[in-house]
Every structure is written in structure tokens, then in C-alpha cells.
Amino acid sequence: MAIILDGRSLTVEDVIKVCRNYERVELSSDATIAVKKARNYIEKKLEEKAVIYGLTTGFGKFANVVISPEETAKLQKNLIISHTCSMGKPYETKYVRAAMLLRANSLAHGNSGIRLETLQTLIDMLNEGIHPIVPEKGSVGSSGDLAPLSCIALGLIGLGKVEYKGQVIDAQEAFDMTGLKPVELQAKEGLALNNGTQMMTAVGCNVLYDAMKLMKIADIAGAMTGEALHAIKKAYDPKTHILRGQEGQIQVAENMRILLEGSGNTLLVQPNKVQDPYSQRCLPQIHGASRDAINYVYNAVSRELNAVTDNPIVFPDEDEVISGGNFHGQPMALAFDFLKIAISELANVSERRIERLVNPALSEGLPAFLAKDGGVNSGYMIAQYAAASMVSENKVYDHPACVDSIPTSANQEDHVSMGTTSARTAALVLDNAQKVIGIEVSAAAQAIWLRQEIGENGINNLSPAMKAAYDFIRKTLPPVEEDIIMESYLAKFDDMIKDNSLLEAVEKIVAIK
User: Fold this and answer.
1) In what helix (H) or strand (E) does residue 3 lie, and over which residues does it extend?
2) Is the pLDDT of residue 219 over 70?
3) Alpha-carbon distances, residue 151 vs 37, 80, 253, 259 (angstroms)
4) Domain final residue, candidates 196, 224, 250
């Protein structure tokens, strides 16, 4: 079933369906009417020879230069060509598709003044799988994502390179192969296409979606470590968490109770200890705070998916064209900086639990470094190093990009958001966090197996949910009995985190929030 664009009802989940699963996109009838109405208004203003920013004037510092009617089309084409200054390796296809979708949805609002046929061609490119090549670097996030969105618009007018059916070819060649025709831009259209926050939001939306899965997987990883280290379940008593009232904390505590229900390894009271360390005992507080942050980002992104962010904005009913600043990426920049910090904390506390699994002074009787025959074998010694390396790397990426504004356009644009950097670094943080949590899951599964090997009944005492997780792992990955090439082994855990297969195996047994 097609995703219908009306400029108002697109969801995070819809974006994922289109950018990863290639669902088709259609324009709603109401959007069609609104787009035509706004374009008619623009044509009227052109006839009146009105002086309107970006329509009959230059851009940025050239806003005081009036453009003749004969040159308005050239102005728009030159805008796109001159602004394609992105550099570096290309964005992944899923990000480009998401940006194309979000740009189309914003234009569908009917406040941008673009022609219907131009918008429809952008949608047709998306449906046909014609994806402009967009280098990653070059956006300051105000006036929106000018450079990357110009790369998308460049493909729309039949110039530059595109990815089509796995091959990088000329844009015109892709049009010829699909029967589509490139657009010849008219007044206002270039600005409508490259002014906005769609590239940063496209990347951030994808990171957000995966972070929402990862926060549940992090709870599973913490529960598995709890099984291996005989956690005290009393710390997850709802009475404690309700007293504080933090929603994420309450949800995580409930998840831990659900995941550990029926466990013989984790008890309400452990005979040999009074408290667990913070990484286990405060798991609801730590994971929960990240959940609350991710929820904030979800709400902010959900609004931005349906926002009009170009400039100027057309109001046909009020007979106004307002040159405002909706292109400024600050709402997304702050959100994505917050997102990457929230994801990092899931990895930070995961690495501390890994340390407790491998350190014989902390692991409650487990063999050092989870090696069955230590000395000859190093076991998980360097797996913890790798986790430590990645959480440290994340701390570099976590520097908030949004506080590093630098003036552009001869100080006309004297504060910019750097939101695209926020989103791109959030993607790097996510990748590291997924790997670290994968290492924790691997180490916890190894520890549970070793409990059995040293004469304890670790596997048989697992809760039903954790038994499902353990059995899923062991279907394809045996325990490490002696040293192996760990890189390829741990990569399998990274895969099961990223493809959500571990989460799905657990959720066949229990439902978690």
C-alpha cells in the first residue's frame, strides 16, 4: 500500500518503509489542490512584477539584487548548480531516499510555490529508484541543507550522477531508461527544492528509528548480564521507580522484571551480597534517562517530518510571501546532539557491565576474561578493550555540533545550526553503541555457559525470555571453548543487534516496552 503525502501526517515509521523497504509514494488529492493554488499565486506575483526574495531577487547577501523576469528561470538553475558543493563519500541510499521523501512531503503542504509537475517528478524518481549521488559533507544546517539538497535537485534537472539499480550513471541516462523527463526549473522552484532541513532530518530519523530498537536490546543485554552475575531483582521493584516518577525509568524497570521473570539466577535477595553495582542496580535510571531523551527526539522529529522549512513561504489566502527562517536547523541540531548522547550512555554502561563479566575480581566466581582455560587462552580480554575504545570514540562524536556555529554568506547568515553534523555523528555513535552492546550480549552468553561448565546450573536457571535469547544465539554461534578469531565472531553479534533478530527472538516469548 502506497504512502500518501499530504504534508501533515507522515510518521517516522512511514519514512523507514519508504527509505528502506521501497514502498511507493503518492500525492494526496488535497495536496495536489494546495500545490496548484500556491503556484497560481506565484505566477500572479510574477505578472505583477512584485519584488520577492528568491523569486525576483538574488540569494543570501545578493538579496538586494533584483532579477529581471527573463532571468528568473536561469536564476533557479544557477542556484542549484552553484550550491552543489558537498564533498566526501556519498550518503547511503536510505538517507537519500528519506531526504527525497521529506522534501516532497514538505512541498506537498502547498506553501512553497513549486509547480505540481516538478513535485510529481521528484516523487516519480523516488518510486523508480533514481537516487542522486549526495556527498556527506558540506552542510551547515542553515539556510537548511543547501549543498546536499542541491545535489538532489541537480538529479531532478537531469544533471550529475545518480544511483539506479545498483549502478552509478548519469542522471539523464536514468531518465531515459525510465521514461521520465528532467525538470526545467521555473521561478521559485530551485529555492523550494534546496532550502530546508530534510537531509539532517533524513539521517537523524533513521538513527532515531534504530535507537528506539536499541534501547530495548540494551535492556535485554542488561538482563542477560544480570543472569550471569546473579543480579538482585529487588532493585527493579516498581514501588521505588514510581516514587521518582520518571517515565523511562519506570518502563525499564518493568522490562527488567518481565525479562527476568522465572529466573533462578537472579533473585529478590542474594545470599552473598547486599547490593549490585550501579551498572546493574541503576540500570532503570540510566537506560530510562536515555529512553526519555529518545522519546523527546521522536516527538521533535515527528513534527519536523511535516514541517514547511523552505524560504520564502507562500500564503496564497493571505496574499503574503514571508521571508522567515524555518530553514534553520536548530530544533533538529539540538535534538540529534541529545540523541547521540542518549545512545552513548547505553554503550557506556554496557561497557561497564562487560568489565564486570571479564574481571575475575568482579565477576562473582567466573573464570578470568571468560576463558575456559585461562593463560593459554585470553578469552574476552580484548573484546572489552574494543568496547572501551568505541565508547571513548563516542565521547569525541558527542561534542554538541550545534554550539559550533560559524557565520556564512558574508555574515548575512551569522548563526547556523550544524544540525547535519549532529545527525551524521549520531549515526557514528549508533554504530559504535550497537557493536558495544553486541559485545555485552556475547560476553553474557559466554558467562552463562561457563556457569554450567564450572558446575553451576546457569543455563537451566534462565528466565524464559533469557532462555529464548540464549537459545537463539546458540543456534548459530557456539560458546568460545578456546581462542578463536574474535572479529568475525563478534561481527555476528553486531549483525543480530542491527537486524533486530535477537530482539524478535525475545519478543516471541515476552512483550517489552
Assistant:
1) strand 3-5
2) yes
3) 27, 8, 46, 47
4) 196
Taking a C-beta distance cutoff of 8 angstroms, is the pair 213, 290 a contact? no
- 419 and 368 in one domain? yes
Q: What is the mean pLDDT of residues 148-176?
A: 97
Same-domain pairing of 343 and 448: yes
Listed in order, strand segments (DSSP E) in 51-160 are: 87-90, 130-132, 135-137
- Cα separation, 253 vs 282, in Å, equals 9
Q: Where are the beta strands (DSSP E) in 91-156?
A: 130-132, 135-137
Q: Domain containing 89 — which CATH number?
A: 1.10.275.10
Three-class DSSP category at 232: strand
Residues 495 and 354 in one domain: yes
Q: 161 pLDDT band (50/70/90 cuts)?
A: very high
**What integer pLDDT is reported at residue 60 of this predicted model?**
65
SS3 320: strand
Residues 6+ apart with CB under 8 A from 311: 53, 54, 143, 191, 195, 323, 324, 325, 326, 327
Mean of the per-residue pLDDT values of the chain: 94
Q: Can you give the CATH number for the domain in which 469 is found?
A: 1.20.200.10
Residue of 53, 164, 298, 489 marked catalytic: 53
Assess if residue 248 is contained within a domain.
yes
Residue 478's domain comprises 204-310+337-507
Please tell me the chain's helix, strand, coil percentages from 3-state DSSP, rounded to the nearest 5.
Answer: 60, 10, 30
Q: Among 194, 27, 44, which residue's Cα sits nearest to residue 109?
A: 27
Whether residue 329 is contained in a domain is answered as no
The pLDDT-based confidence of 59 (bands split at 50, 70, 90) is: low
Cα 426 from Cα 450, distance rounded (Å): 36
Task: Identify the pLDDT of residue 45.
Answer: 84
Domain count, the chain: 2
Last residue of a domain, one of 147, 179, 196: 196
Question: What's the mean pLDDT in 296-306?
Answer: 98
Half-sphere exposure of 364 (CA within 13 A, CB side): 23
Q: Which of 434, 365, 387, 59 is nearest to 209 (CA)?
A: 434
Same domain for 101 and 23: yes
Q: 209 catalytic, yes or no?
A: no
pTM, two decimal places:
0.95
DSSP-derived secondary structure for 212-223: HHHHHHHHHHHH
Residue indicated by cell numbers 505583477: 48
355 neighbors 228 (Cβ within 8 angstroms): no
Report how far residue 372's alpha carbon sits from residue 376's, in angstroms, rounded to the nearest whole number: 10
Task: Looking at the structure, tell me whether residues 278 and 135 fall in a common domain.
Answer: no
Tens of pLDDT, residue by residue over 68-119, are 777 777 888 888 999 999 999 999 999 999 999 999 999 999 999 999 999 9
